[in-house]
């Protein structure tokens, strides 16, 4: 039984290593490592300036989205009237509120400064 499990696990691993080796060879070819030049002068810079405000808003959204996912099951857990769940619910809410106040004080939430 153990030998069968070992074979079942080794076959995908060997296939993965084989394809990784083939892919690595194709990524390191001379044509792919040389820069592309078409002969035209660029009309603008290749890197466009990016506002960090969009990045901060996206990070804040992701953080609060995950925190909301953590909070959503708590009403179901509070049906049991367990005091430890009740305390943990308020601790998580105070951590979220503290993060919101901290971001507000840093000015990360203000769109126009």
UniProtKB/TrEMBL annotation:
GO cellular component, alphabetical, reads:
mitochondrial membrane; NADH dehydrogenase complex
Q: Which residues cross the membrane?
A: 6-24, 54-77, 83-104
Predominant subcellular localization, coarse grouping: membrane
* Swiss-Prot/TrEMBL keywords: Electron transport, Membrane, Mitochondrion, NAD, Respiratory chain, Translocase, Transmembrane, Transmembrane helix, Transport, Ubiquinone
Membrane-protein topology: Multi-pass membrane protein
* Localization in the cell: Membrane; Mitochondrion membrane
Name the chemical reaction catalysed here.
Answer: a ubiquinone + NADH + 5 H(+)(in) = a ubiquinol + NAD(+) + 4 H(+)(out)
Q: What is its EC number?
A: 7.1.1.2
Transmembrane helix found in the keyword field: yes
Per the UniProt record, one Pfam family is: Oxidored_q4
Top EC class of this enzyme: translocase
One GO molecular function term of this record is: NADH dehydrogenase (ubiquinone) activity
* Function as written in the Swiss-Prot or TrEMBL entry: Core subunit of the mitochondrial membrane respiratory chain NADH dehydrogenase (Complex I) which catalyzes electron transfer from NADH through the respiratory chain, using ubiquinone as an electron acceptor. Essential for the catalytic activity of complex I.
The entry sums up its family as follows:
Belongs to the complex I subunit 3 family.
Q: Write down what this protein is called.
A: NADH-ubiquinone oxidoreductase chain 3
Source organism: Haemaphysalis colasbelcouri
């Amino acid at each position: 039984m153990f030998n069968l499990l070992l074979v079942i696990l080794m076959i995908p691993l060997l296939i993965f290593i084989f394809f990784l080796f083939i892919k690595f060879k194709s990524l390191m070819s001379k044509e792919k490592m040389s820069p592309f030049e078409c002969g035209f002068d660029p009309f603008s810079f290749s890197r466009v300036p990016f506002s960090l405000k969009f990045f901060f808003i996206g990070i804040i959204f992701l953080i609060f989205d995950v925190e909301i996912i953590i909070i959503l099951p708590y009403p179901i857990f509070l049906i049991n009237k367990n005091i430890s769940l009740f305390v943990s619910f308020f601790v998580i809410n105070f951590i979220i509120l503290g993060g919101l106040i901290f971001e507000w004080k840093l000015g990360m939430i203000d769109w126009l400064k």
